[in-house]
Write a structure and sequence with these properties.
The protein contains 32 helices and two strands. Among the domains are: about 120 residues, Serine Threonine Protein Phosphatase 5, Tetratricopeptide repeat; about 100 residues, Tetratricopeptide repeat domain (Serine Threonine Protein Phosphatase 5, Tetratricopeptide repeat). A two-stranded antiparallel sheet has the order 1-2. It is globular. Helix 13 packs antiparallel against helix 14, helix 23 packs antiparallel against helix 24 and helix 26 runs antiparallel to helix 27. With about 575 residues, the chain is mostly helical.
Length: about 575
Amino acid sequence: MQRHKTNTSSWIKRFCAVSMTAILISACGAGIAGSKDGGIGNDIPQQITLEKEGSVFGDFLAGRHAESVHDAPVAARYFGQAYRKAPDNPELLKRSFLFSAMEGKMEEASKLALKVLENTDSEPVATLVLMTGDVVKGDFAAAEKRLDLLPKTGVSTFMRPLLKAWALAGAGKTAEALKELSRLSGEGGYDSLHDMHAALINEAGGKDKEAEAYYLKAVNSAAGLTLRVTELLGALYERQGQPEKALEVYGKYQTAHPGSLLIDPIITRAGNKKSAAPDSISPKDGISEALFGIASSMRQQNAQDSALIFTRLALRLKPNFPIAQILLADIHEAQARPDDANKAYMKIDKASPFNWTARLRIATNYNTLGKLDEAVSLLKKMAAERPDLYTPLVELGNLLRSHSRFKEAVKAYDQALKRVGKIEPHHWSLLYSRGIALERSKQWDKAEADFLKALEFEPDQPFVLNYLGYSWVEKGLHINKAQKMIEKAVKLRPRDGYIVDSLGWVQYRLGNYLPAVKNLERAIELRPEDPTINDHLGDAYWRIGRKLEAGFQWRRALSLKPEEDLAEIIQDKIDNGLGPAEPIKAQ
């Protein structure tokens, strides 16, 4: 039988309408891994036998599927396999390169980057991979030359001068570095970025006075006293032997962000005379800092894959970089990779101020992974380690409440509030959480007191207004007040299906069935998978004579696996319908 030969590149291109390449083209403002004539994948046709072709296509399609569901490790493996079987195919080269970089396989990515650049005049990510390799070797002159290959549009508008400035600083050319960085000053809203890195470059060059001036300028910019600028300026003061000035800066941040978990360990370190101040940033660290900033910006714009690559590049230069490690974990969480997120969190130095937050996130991810016992154990251990902190107990309460272990959750919240001492306005959410656990464990009087206290602190808090109002309606209490509270909550959050459901339900309980149907239908549009809302709509349909639709909604509610007690009630309604209406009276 004659074996037909096929143009593999042409076949693959038909499956590449939306790809990682397109995402990064948008992010970097230039074509990535495109051919020299501007097209993507316009390579010389290659002929592959049917047996080999099938294997390549199988790997390629498996990689594309993994790419579509953001499973980067699997995508990297399959694209790598496909590329090794068809090494002259530029589409496979691009994907193998990009996913190697995404997974932090920098040695492999560097080799592939060289091949990618043989086929294109400009490929930003490949250029950056090789540039970071130069920096690892300490060759800042080579890094500077590579950065000249970056485009002058898109993200590179600020990325190019920022990275070049640090490459010049690495070569000992502080004045030239600051001149290059000045391209960002007064341009496109990059002033705060310029000021922070000007401070760092001056500090790296031994010019502490100039560094302080730029830090203070950054503090007074539109970005204000961010955590990172707070940390860097305070660290400068600590290294200068001025812990009191460092504590003043940290205190300002703490006042502006009460309850911050990140600033407390930094304050503790600064106040301990035996603690060493953090080291100053080197040029290699500065490039890592710049890459982290770009990654963070991309993450905020939900460009997950691009953010992942830039985070990997930052960590290549500075592996022990807690905020970048947290960003890496955060991206993994967004990509539904909780196990990989935990691996990133676990690498954070135990002495880092960020380690505590990382451990809290590890507990959350344990829960996501179905490891509830491990999550509970970790949070209890953390609570015992720091009897002055209430946050691990709050997390423990939230975790237990999410598993309907309400009485245990109440105990955790009680312990947290005991540690709080004086309850202040920013503790409203803790009162709200305990109120829910109390209400669900049939301790209504205590729950009501918590909700009312929370509303004293936050009178326009829609979740508290809704929960208390709904509870009052269910108990036949304060109906007029409850309805007004829920109506207020709906105005504050008109697209929250649970709150809209509450309004429909209070109208139903009052016997106003037509407006109830309208709001409950709206709630279903917003939250179609909630069994309680579907059950409520079924009741409302029954009352206005739409009994077939009522039965459908009840069966729909039952299919969504409600809690056991509700499931029994719904089944009875499916079997027997509703009894006579008994509207409550407005009060």
